[in-house]
Design a protein that fits this description.
alpha+beta; six-stranded mixed β-sheet; 192 residues; globular; three-stranded antiparallel β-sheet; Trna Endonuclease, Chain: A, domain 1; 2 domains
């Protein structure tokens, strides 16, 4: 369920979350997948967060894993918002989600790019993942010259994954969801 597609006419990215009424603003068949170039369509409803969808499966060779849950999508939005607040005193910083990284054929959940070119990928992992997969994905980012931060939640936030993060990075980041709590239904924690 991507939030980003490419405008077929201009070649520019469309962030569906920055459009107040996508059904009225966007015309049919005017957007394509940023990974495979195939046509996409808009999905939205009273309880369905607006997003783009393929008519058929994405034919990209990017390693994207499986479809994202509503919590994963929400976490990307919130993490982008929180990182913007964190870096609000810095100029010319780019904070984007669903960013394709061509050199490693991966899509960063949230990518922070500093003016001098330093990039930080923030990966949200909510589903179960093996230590081997964490290592492989991390090494892919390192090969691309990108630092990576893992945000573990739900079934991925287990002792073995947290300990792997502590050994690899010196800390472990966790996220949790509590939609009954207001005003912040989303929380982060750090273990060192």
């Amino acid at each position: 369920m991507p939030f980003i597609a490419i405008d077929k006419n201009t070649g520019k990215p469309i962030d569906i979350l920055e459009i107040s009424n996508p059904h009225l603003t966007l015309k049919k068949s005017e957007f394509i997948c940023q990974l495979c170039g195939e046509a996409m369509f808009l999905k939205a409803g009273p309880i369905l967060r607006p997003h783009f969808s393929h008519f058929a499966d994405c034919k990209s060779d990017y390693k994207t894993g499986h479809s994202e849950t509503a919590n994963h999508l929400f976490a990307k939005m919130e993490l982008k918002r929180i990182l913007r607040a964190q870096f609000s005193n810095l100029e010319n910083i780019e904070i984007e989600y669903e960013v394709p990284i061509p050199e490693i054929k991966r899509v960063a959940d949230v990518l922070v790019t500093f003016p001098m070119g330093w990039r930080m990928a923030h990966e949200i992992q909510l589903s179960s993942i093996t230590l081997e997969d964490l290592e492989e994905r991390t090494n892919d980012y390192f090969r691309g010259g990108i630092d990576v931060y893992w945000w573990l939640g739900e079934s991925a936030d287990i002792p073995s994954n947290r300990m792997w993060c502590v050994k690899k990075f010196g800390f472990s980041l966790s996220i949790s969801f509590n939609f009954k709590q207001q005003p912040e239904p989303f929380s982060f924690s750090q273990i060192t």
